[in-house]
Amino acid sequence: MPIPYQKFEIFLEFEKNAFADIYPSFALRAVLGKELKRFACILRHKQTCDDCPLRFQCAYSVVFETPIEKNNDFLKGRDKASHPFITYCERDVNTNFNELKFELTLFGKGIKYFPYIYYGFLKAGENGLFRERAKYRITKVFSGGHLVNDGSSDDINLPEGTLFTADFSEELVDKNIRINFLSPSRLKVKGKYSSEISFSDILIASLSRYEILSNLYGTSEKNGKIQINLSEIESENCLVWKEYKRYSSRQNDSMIFGGVVGYMNLRGKFPIYAISLLKFAEIFGLGKNTGFGFGKILVEELNE
């Protein structure tokens, strides 16, 4: 079930030294949502998107509300789905900088809304980021090494996107790998978010997310269920729990988001489906709140 996606690297330059009083990914997501709603919503008299006749076409609704029909086959009874984007910024809270690079990955129908998203970030730069409203300009945008925008014009040159296809083969391969958790990953273990996660928990979460995204943004053909067997893999964890505070304007309250950072070393005989699901998680994020910059992982092969 291939899923189309496109990863963008967006470079910002601030008018003066900026201070990130909150996690930068939170701020970037917030200003994008605000700007998209401001210029994309043409029926502003409606209080919510739920009963809007344009909710399945509007850039703001599709990207930030992501409505689906309730009579769907894969999220029965639900009328909202996983958003078609993830973000990541390597800068942390309480840091100073003049330049900022962040990653935006769009998938499925979200890809066609990139011009709206670009314009949203462009307009947000006029109002500024963080508490001090530090103004910025976009200096360049890349996708797959291709220059999408040079920062000096409004031209957007989108290259062809990429398809991700999972391989569910159970053939075994010898590997010695490290999973680097670059931003907090929020995984539930026995119904609760936990810092005590295993490789099996990672694969279960990745498989669940893959099934949802492939139905939403890929094809709807069914794959046979896989039986996760990791008996020939040794693991060593160095993970800690990290939290950030975020203010939610929708709930008018502060919230605490947390997840694990660090690394997990794995060695042994891996089913090919396990390697494929890790690749999926690298591209589409691991766990919850990937649209807030969480769940960024990087998998590297280690020397014997």
Helix content: 10-25%
Strand content: 35-45%
Number of strands: 12
The total domain count is 2
Shape: globular
Uncertain spans, ≥5 residues at pLDDT below 50? Answer: none
- Please outline the major beta sheet: 6 strands, antiparallel
Rg is: 20 Å
Distance between the termini: 34 Å
Instruction: Output mean pLDDT.
Output: 91
Sheet/helix structural class:
alpha+beta
Q: H/E element string?
A: EHHEEHEEEEEEHEEHE
- Tally of separate helices: 5
Question: Could you explain how this protein is built, in words?
Answer:
This protein has 304 residues and is of the alpha+beta class. It has 2 domains: 3-162, no CATH class; 166-301, Alpha-Beta Plaits (2-Layer Sandwich), CATH 3.30.70.1900. It contains 5 helices and 12 strands. Strands 1, 2, 3, 4, 5 and 6 form a 6-stranded antiparallel β-sheet that branches. Helix 1 (24-40) packs antiparallel against helix 2 (59-65). The two termini are 34 Å apart. The model has no long low-confidence stretch (mean pLDDT 91).
Brief overview, please?
This protein is α+β, with helices and mostly antiparallel strands and 304 residues long. It has helices at 24-40, 59-65, 114-127, 199-217, 272-284; strands at residues 3-19, 85-89, 96-107, 136-143, 146-149, 162-164, 172-185, 188-189, 192-193, 233-248, 253-271, 297-301. The longest helix is centred in the C-terminal third of the chain and has 19 residues, at 199-217.
